[in-house]
Amino acid sequence: MKPYLAAALTLLPLLCQAQEGPPITPYRPSVSSPAQLPAAGQLELELGGLSSKSDDGRRNSLPYALKLGFNEQWGVVMSGEGLVSTPDGNGGRARGIGDTLFVLKRAFIIDEGSALGLELGAKAPTAKDSIGSGRADYSLNGIYSQDMGSVHMDANLNATRLGAHDAGTGRTQTGLSASFSTPLNERWGVTGEWSGTRRSGADSTAQVLMAFSYSPSKRMTVDFGMAHGLNHASPDWAFFSGVVLPLAQLW
């Protein structure tokens, strides 16, 4: 993972913005998405490095996300993997870009500490077949976010209609996740999460995640952590690090 992290860190001096402006809204590093959107008109970048190990070997990638809120209720997210290196099944490695996910997001703000969210997503098969599925997927994700004292919870329940699936397995995959985060002090925070997926005729997945975050200002957050699979269908271990920061104030 070191080359990927080095590439990400090299970009930081070019991407860091002035400290004046709205605070960022990180979606990293958990699987769960928060219901809230970034400040209206603020284009935010999330960029990181991810290395996971499973029975098939080690997979490395550079995940990214671009987020833009039109207002407090509506926004869009484009995410994917800028570079992937994964076993190709023939003893070598496949390298290239990953698939790309486009999401239309609606937030329903209940009060200052709670919100509901709905995400409609479409995955474009931009990766070659040795890296991605080669087919488009469509997803619907429901979100509930709640502040409970100093602890913030994001719970997600989603369904994905897969474009590619093995014979004898279902095309619809359901997912459930819940993350809990809390500040340790003014700059440091910690996140814990459980997530998993189910699909008929296929093995279910489940993992736990723990991450720490460091925010030198309200306009930048750096995170690092690890995830551990709870069954044989999930990656054994995954290690990650990344950054969230604003790219531009478009309006």
Automatic annotation (TrEMBL):
The keyword Signal applies. Keywords: Signal. Pfam families: Phenol_MetA_deg (PF13557). InterPro entries: FApF. Residues 1-18 form the signal peptide. The keyword Signal applies. This is Transporter. It comes from Rugamonas aquatica.
